[in-house]
Fold:
Amino acid sequence: MSFLKRLKDRFQPNKEKEAAEKSAEEQNEKLDDGLISIEEFEEWEQEQIGYKFKAGLEKSREKFQNEINELMARYRTVDEDFFEALEEVLIGADVGFNTVMELTDELRHVAKVENITETRDLKETIVEKMVEIYERNDDLPETVNIQEDGLTVILVVGVNGVGKTTSIGKLAYKYKQEGKNVMLAAGDTFRAGAINQLKVWGERVDVDVISQSEGSDPAAVMFDAINAAKKRGTDVLICDTAGRLQNKGNLMNELSKMKNVIQKTVPDAPHESLLVLDATTGQNALSQAKAFKEVTDVSGIVLTKLDGTAKGGIVLAIRNELGIPVKFVGLGEQLDDLQEFNAENYVYGLFADMISNAEELDDTGGDDV
Amino acid sequence: MAFEGLGERLQATMDRIKSKGKVSESDIKVMMREVRLALLEADVNFKVVKQFINQVKERALGSDVMQSLTPGQQVIKIVREELTDLMGGDNQKINLSQKPPTVIMMVGLQGAGKTTTAGKLALHLRKNFNKKPLLVAGDIYRPAAIDQLETVGRQIDVPVFALGDKVKPQQIVTEALDHARAEHLDTVIIDTAGRLHIDEGLMNELKDIKEIATPDEIMLVVDSMTGQDAVNVAESFNDLLDITGVTLTKLDGDTRGGAALSIRSVTGKPIKFAGMSEKMDGLETFHPDRMAQRILGMGDVLSIIEKAQATVDEDEQKVLQQKIKDQSFTLDDFLEQMDQVKNLGPLDELLKMMPGANKIKGLDKMQMSGNEIDHVQAIIRSMTMDERENPSKINASRKKRIARGSGRTLQEVNRLLKQFNEMKKMMKQMTSQKGRKKNPFGNMGLPF
Structure:
């Protein structure tokens, strides 16, 4: 089955309306009454997440869509000018320089081999290749490493102002909702007001926050928190850290010390080391991912602020060049707006209109086998 | 490293031209492609790049690039000049009102650094303009944002006006202005909540605040690491609020900062400040020429020199030069030198500002934090004064003693002594064959 078909089946436009009418409550009731199976419920839930992506990426999509459509309108035949313009569109989405070059080279190859001369016939391949680039290192664990029993430690790192603390609040909410016993560690002892910010989140979500005073050693906070988590039988401990620019050697050393302290007490921790990235960041995100990976062995990315006009295309480059998968995306200000990442959903979010258009084309063309 | 400076990028093209001996129009086209790639890699918006390239190309074609013996250099010169012109211009100073209070409004996306910059600006205005600032806590949405501003205020000893997070920002600003007038505070800096430029509700709130406060300066705070989206953000804020200035933050990172060019060219508004550290005194005037070099990946030499000048005592330098001339440079002088180097800040940061530094293999892996310097210093401090002046006296048993005394290994002591000897030899060469060798520092390694 072609890639677009697969997506279409999942997000049929007419189904969309119908699904939106069913409220979560209704679905829950149905599940309780045995009207729908657990599988059906889960499928419904998956769909909802897909729509959330679509809504969150609304602005990004609109712009990106227009650009691609304009491109297709302007360049009807596949030639060098078209590829150069496509390069610009992709760079405009911050996809990252080397990755864009790689992608367009592959497309040139496909166009040549399959003798594609009209740009609209290349549309589908563009989407497909983008997902492919993302999913190339297929053996990478996409899911979040949560221990079945015992303590899971999640270390959250990143540069200043990317949304670490907010993401932690949302993560805490998510795991709390799943019935886990969650605790937060206030490891940002540097920035003014950071500890209180985390405490407010702790109150909002109703989880414990372990903290010391501003200016204290963050490694000591980690030590305290881990011990408290062990004593209280916590399931998930999420550790906040101060924002630091990746080229500051001493601050990166401090981070490695924090990691060591965690490791000493719980040998296989941190189970997840999440790098928080701002979707508006450009090429520097690569440098961030590289530096933080060296120090804390980053296992996943939280891509925040994706509800603006930024497309966060740099995650394609990060996955492609450094092999770090995106695990969560921040799609809004609400508590539940942090979603587990799904490459197909992401690309669907960016290309939604294009996919429905392709369907129309297929329908009128009628040459789909 | 993924990033190459424009110089390296143009090198291959230049080599080809050299062998031909003449520059053709198509050569210029090739060079322009390299310029384009360099700018795109630096995160300059692709539309801005296009426009810019056309401008540069025109100038390059019309000028003496084609006749020049060093066409590559000429192109770099033109690009740099155009970049500097574009980002520079008038009105780079902060707007201050004749009639107090001066009102400054900080706006921007979440996490750009508004609150920190507000604090830095308050300190800057008090220090350099003798102002009495008041910080206004207008971010009622983010948890503990008010707390953050209050802490910042305490750190720099500037009053903060806050009404908690239950009162509307419009109301807070109105009361803050009355408060400033009553307390004779002549500068009011309003911190606002970070918001997405597409969030209509919150953007309208900014419009309200603008109407109430009639600010003299509306400062858009932008993260210098922002990618292609910088144009959308800057455009939206500018269209709605008609901003008057821009502050680029987190420039102490290793971003090339192409956003500066994008923002400047879509808004036409001046970039006034650069945020350089998490400390409250880390706000610097924006230098278009340095930013141009940085975007082109040519290093920020001027900032290094300035930093060095600020920390190194001139008289001491003269004494040192004399010592190098007489070859009486001792380990003790070396110790002093290292103190000065340490004052410059973390070495790895310094190195990254140097042109071509990203080309040196293994530099990124090199541990250059203050520790190594500390170790070398500890070793020297474990020597007697006599040993420091005559290192040749240090025999095996002395070495053992020094190693024990400094807590370092014997190998490290040996290495230091060997490197010091080499350094002295090099100094001798430098003074004896002055001017003959092009770059006497070329192979001078740091002794650790």
About this structure: Confidence is low (pLDDT under 50) at residues 358-368, 434-448 of chain B. The beta strands of chain B are 102-107, 133-138, 160-161, 187-192, 217-223, 245-249, 271-275, 283-285. The first strand of chain B starts at residue 102 and ends at 107. Chain B touches chain A through 58 residues (CB under 8 Å).
